Amino acid sequence: MQQESGRRSNRDRTEATRGDLIAAARKLFTEKSYAETGTPEIVAAAGVTRGALYHHFADKQALFAAVVEQEAQAVAEEIDWASPSSLSARDALLAGSDAYLAAMRVSGRTRLLLLDGPAVLGRAEMDAIDNRHGSRSLREGLVAAMRERSMKTLPVEALTALLASAFDRAALAIEAGGSDKDYRVVLLALIDGLSRA
């Protein structure tokens, strides 16, 4: 029993260290950018050694990927929470759209997911991360709307990619001072424009 308790304690410490590194890196990456942040700053901010950093992550880029993955997961969770299966597919898409724009207002998120993410990790890796999270939510919503026949049947992957790009552009524009109301109206019109009615 004590060995199991010790293993659990080690696992807890391991996860805590990993979490501290991700939190410290997120703060620095959003304040300074990926390029301007060094690993010595990250380990100092996390209160760990360089050895601990390299025990958990192969390099700074791998740590950045973990930060981006966590942010993308947080966005998807907010979308999923706002668009329960009890809603019609159309209403779930609209609620998910609003949730996405709200989630992207979290400080530093557009920089991590839409600017530095593609630059540091490359488009293919960012697409893979997004396909596990935000695009997955959007794709599921579009498929549900097509199944309930409230939306025109279109190629799902192409539609998901184009709508996701529109949402990302809106998030960037809003962060730059654009009217969230205007972008929301246009995004909702895009979704309603796909209606069979």
Characterize the structure shown.
The protein is an all-alpha fold and 197 residues long. The protein is built from ten helices and no strands. Helix 4 (60-82) crosses helix 6. The longest helix has 31 residues, at 2-32. The chain is elongated. It starts with a helix and ends with a helix.
Give a quick precis of the structure.
The chain is an all-alpha fold and 197 residues long.
Question: What is this structure's SSE topology?
Answer:
Layout: H1 2-32, H2 39-46, H3 50-56, H4 60-82, H5 89-103, H6 109-121, H7 123-132, H8 134-147, H9 156-175, H10 180-193
Enumerate the spans where pLDDT stays under 50 for 5 or more consecutive residues.
Answer: none
Helix segment tally: 10
Shape: elongated
Order of helices and strands: HHHHHHHHHH
Give me the oligomer status. Answer: single chain
Would you tell me the overall average pLDDT? Answer: 93
Residue share in helix: over 70%
Percentage beta strand: under 5%
Question: What structural category do the secondary elements indicate?
Answer: mainly alpha
Radius of gyration over alpha carbons?
19 Å
The tally of beta strands, per DSSP, is 0
Distance between termini?
A: 64 Å
Largest sheet: none
